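Box 3.1 A note on notation
Throughout this textbook, protein chains are presented in two layers. The first layer is the amino acid sequence; the second is a token string describing backbone geometry. Keep the layers aligned when reading.
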Amino acid sequence: MARRKATATANVDWYLISIDRLKQAGLILLLVILGVSGWWFYTNQKRNPRSSAEAAIADAREALNSLAASKELATHRTEFDRAQKKLEEATTLLGSAKYPDAEGAAVESQTISRAALSGGTGAENDAQFLTVEGDVQYQKSQSSDWHRADQRTPLYHGDWVKTGDHASAELMFSNGSLYTIGPNALLEIYAQFNPATARKSNSVQMQVGSVEVATTDDASTVRTPSTQVTVDSDSSTQVGVDQQKQTAVVATKGTASVAPASGGSAVKLTGGEKVTASAQGAMSGVKKFSMPPALLTPADNQVFPVTSESRVDFSWDTVPGATGYQLQVSRSRLFTSLEINSKRQKTSATAKVTAEGAFYWRVASIGPDGDVGPPSGFRRFRVSGGQQEPGTINREAPPPSLQLKRPYPIGGPFYMIEGTTDPGATVFINDEEIDVESNGHFKKLVSFSKIGRNAVVVKAVNAAGKQTVQSETVLVEE
């Protein structure tokens, strides 16, 4: 009987495969197994926190050894000590199974060593003094000695800063946040590396005194004995700690959140709101404060002559709900000392001109509860011994003077552009108008997005329209 031929593939019990096809299939299967094994090894070994930390520590040790063997070791002894300390910290954290923290410390160590090997001079610092007025001192984390602070003094994680009576300082952090410290303050610098974002989270620990934080595109944190204050990006917030360890927080722009240090729900603040906390962390209700008024006269950078009849007339807009105003006049841009500190019922005041120099003025509103709100931004005026009437334009005057300092790095892509021009001149940096103090001094923090050479064009223009232009080149390294 003839064997019946299968007519459907469903009835086929076997397939006949040539030896060559079998070899090809085996090879493909082997490659698949190797690929899966490699992926498993990568995800479970190479990318696990411990392995990442160990690799970072190995790289940091190699960089430190290279620095130790270099001819420039004596020049970069401070950087070597900092890198070695960070490496030791990373090793200790690894032994404690704190792998992300260990990796962060190792990356910082390697960064310090590599920067020193490439001739770096501290651009990787965590913070830096921009302005110092009065008795301002700092203490390094590994020392008990206090040193007098100077502009451009670098600060690192664990360093301390204190200000005396009538003293103040501005600190610029590596993420662009500006911290303005008031008198009689004591704080510690914190900067923790986040491996997930490859950025540092910057903060300070306030023991006493006040600080105002202005952020850019990143948040910053202020810790106090009883709270943790997070200032969101593109925001400004004032934080004060009194002698009884009570905390007051005022959001002047954007948003901020305040949480008890012991844990608990955070209170969200928006511009125009404030909250207080006891030394134990008990939070008050959120209160609205009176916003500062808009300043009217005198105009910014106005010049007044010194005569027996000369007076300065101050005026500002009315603020709805305000019961009064507080006028402050100072010779300091940070208002560390006050020539006038007067409460007014009206929206005007007059002061007699008695001495030459540069002055700054601002006004705060007083709410129905008697609390004084945050002050307005300042304006400047100058008192000069010349007899020229204010507002008179001298068409025969020469172009304004312009002296530039060499741009210096603050950290990352941030560079400080600083110089002096004639009092009353207007200054533009890359076509952007900037503030000029009444004595002609100016400075502007500029962020560069392009790696390599960047041109900085500075132009000073006087009232007659005459101008002086200078340019500088900034080399931004990746």
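The CA atoms of residues 5 and 11 lie 10 Å apart. The domain at 127-288 is CATH 2.60.120.1440 (Jelly Rolls).
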